[in-house]
């Protein structure tokens, strides 16, 4: 599952045209490496400035902060002086008149037969959660040891800066008048479901069209080993409301004869799982895919699994995360413990988040989950299912020349070849990109490592990983700038 370094051939499988060709490539890489290293302090300072902006895209948060983040990113892109156009764009959300959060769109055409690369990242972030769960303020970038802490420091403002820094390095190494075509798309609502993404693609199809699409929003195998993400699970989220009573009743007067909504909810949710904790919903599928070695000890270290608590599921650990479905109850609305009275609860509402395996339709999976819930409702409980959101899973085609180029760039930057990995999380818009640009080759890369804790308190970026990720992308852009046959 690892890429093989190229020795006597070019990264695209072609032999060098001459010794001069090989020397030129080596000189370009040396110049790119020098540019990345000398520019790193500025890159990190720019990243810290972005982290200070609390650009949470969720509806309950201040949209002005997302707008401020978009303006800051647009200024960085303008400062590159390589794009013919740089815009802050709002696209409409389907089904209404509301506009989505601001995205940055920039483009420059390719020349002399060179390919065009679309670089994607997102500048919005997750809510910080409780301040007391953070060791430092979530929006005050803080360096401790080799890591930069802050909300968005890894996911995905580091992805934004990886693109900015790699383009800066390319300009330093080869000059601003390079032939490579570039499009840059920095989204502003990825953490809130990319609700306007489909409209954005349709309205900006030509500006976004590329031969290669680099999505910088994933993980690396560890802090010393790069990765190319080749499989992503999809998702189905929904709100389930369980009702058994028209109003609350005294638990002493009627308990034992009347099923309250909490009892019905607990029994219903339990039907979603087998005894080993794996998903028991008929119609949710799995796939077979090879996985690298990954021990239970490593799982415990990376997740904080408490002593005595056992993992769930069956098969290899990574197959449970990459290629099998997973179902999580992520929220429950019911009386709180502090406000609990001795009453039978009439209504309980839960949020269910399901990750579906690559190869399954999200719509099909949603139908299977709803059918299971309705068929297993205990005591005739009344169910309402709404606020359903779906995202398609994705499998990357690794047979193209772009993946070969990326493997060679990562090997040169990290000193070891990349590992092909699956990711248990979802990036649903990739399926939209593939549908809109079927001939484009997709590369899913990233700046995170297993201890980045994206979405969680104390999110962080390993600065060594970040440097090598920037260098990998700079090498890739430099190589594609010299590639005339695509």
Architecture overview:
- This protein has 2 domains: 19-231 and 394-481, Aminopeptidase; 234-287 and 323-391, 2-Layer Sandwich (Alpha-Beta Plaits).
- It contains 13 helices and 18 strands.
- The longest helix is centred in the N-terminal third of the chain and has 33 residues, at 19-51.
- A hairpin with a 2-residue loop joins strand 4 (142-144) and strand 5.
- The protein has helices at 19-51, 63-78, 157-174, 197-203, 205-208, 251-254, 261-270, 296-303, 317-322, 362-375, 401-414, 429-436, 463-481; strands spanning 85-89, 103-108, 116-122, 142-144, 147-149, 181-187, 212-219, 227-232, 234-243, 249-250, 326-333, 343-344, 347-356, 382-391, 394-395, 419-423, 441-448, 460-462.
- The model is unreliable at 1-21 (pLDDT under 50).
- 33% of the residues lie in helices and 22% in strands.
- Helix 1 crosses helix 13 (463-481), helix 4 (197-203) packs parallel to helix 12 and helix 11 (401-414) crosses helix 13 (463-481).
- With 486 residues, it is of the alpha+beta class.
- The strands form 5 sheets. Strands 1-2-6-3-7-17 form a 6-stranded mixed β-sheet. A 4-stranded antiparallel β-sheet has the order 11-13-9-14. A 3-stranded antiparallel β-sheet has the order 4-5-18.
- GO terms for molecular function: metal ion binding; peptidase activity.
- It comes from Cryobacterium gelidum.
- Residues 231-378 form the Peptidase M20 dimerisation domain.
- Keywords: Hydrolase, Metal-binding, Protease.
- Residues 1-28 are annotated as: Disordered.
């Amino acid at each position: 599952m690892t890429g093989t370094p190229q020795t006597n051939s070019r990264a695209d499988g072609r032999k060098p045209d001459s010794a001069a060709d090989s020397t030129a490539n080596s000189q370009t890489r040396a110049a790119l490496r020098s540019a990345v290293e000398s520019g790193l302090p500025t890159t990190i300072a720019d990243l810290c400035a972005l982290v200070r902006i609390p650009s949470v895209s969720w509806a309950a948060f201040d949209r002005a902060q997302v707008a401020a983040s978009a303006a800051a990113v647009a200024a960085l892109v303008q400062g590159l002086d390589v794009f013919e156009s740089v815009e802050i764009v709002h696209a409409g959300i389907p089904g209404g008149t509301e506009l989505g959060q601001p995205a940055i769109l920039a483009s420059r055409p390719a020349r002399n037969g060179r390919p065009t690369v679309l670089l994607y990242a997102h500048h919005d972030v997750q809510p910080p959660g409780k301040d007391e769960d953070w060791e430092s303020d979530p929006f005050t970038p803080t360096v401790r040891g080799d890591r930069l802490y802050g909300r968005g420091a890894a996911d995905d403002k580091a992805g934004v800066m990886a693109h900015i820094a790699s383009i800066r390095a390319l300009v330093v190494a080869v000059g601003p008048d390079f032939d490579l075509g570039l499009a840059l798309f920095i989204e502003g609502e990825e953490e809130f479901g990319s609700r306007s993404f489909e409209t954005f693609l349709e309205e900006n199809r030509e500006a976004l069209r590329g031969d290669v699409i680099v999505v910088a929003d994933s993980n690396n195998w560890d802090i010393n080993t790069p990765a190319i993400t080749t499989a992503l699970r999809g998702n189905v989220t929904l709100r389930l409301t369980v009702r058994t009573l028209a109003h609350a009743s005294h638990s002493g007067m009627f308990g034992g004869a009347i099923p309250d909504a909490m009892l019905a909810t607990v029994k219903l949710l339990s039907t979603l799982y087998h005894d080993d904790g794996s998903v028991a919903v008929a119609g949710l599928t799995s796939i077979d895919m090879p996985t690298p070695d990954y021990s239970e000890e490593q799982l415990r270290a990376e997740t904080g699994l408490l002593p005595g608590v056992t993992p769930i599921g069956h098969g290899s650990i990574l197959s449970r995360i990459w290629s099998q479905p997973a179902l999580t109850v992520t929220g429950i609305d019911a009386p709180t413990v502090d406000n609990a009275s001795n009453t039978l609860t009439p209504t309980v509402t839960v949020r269910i988040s399901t990750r579906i395996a690559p190869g399954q339709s999200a719509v099909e999976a949603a139908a299977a989950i709803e059918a299971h819930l309705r068929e297993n409702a205990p005591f005739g409980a009344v169910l309402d299912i709404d606020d359903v959101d779906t995202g398609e899973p994705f499998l990357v085609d690794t047979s193209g020349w772009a993946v070969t180029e990326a493997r060679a760039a990562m090997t040169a930057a990290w000193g070891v070849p990349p590992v092909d990995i699956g990711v248990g999380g979802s990036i649903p818009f990739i399926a939209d990109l593939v549908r809109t640009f079927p001939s484009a080759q997709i590369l899913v890369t990233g700046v995170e490592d297993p201890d980045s804790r994206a979405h969680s308190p104390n999110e962080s970026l390993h600065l060594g990983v970040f440097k090598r990720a920037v260098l990998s992308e700079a090498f890739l852009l430099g190589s594609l700038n010299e590639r005339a046959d695509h």
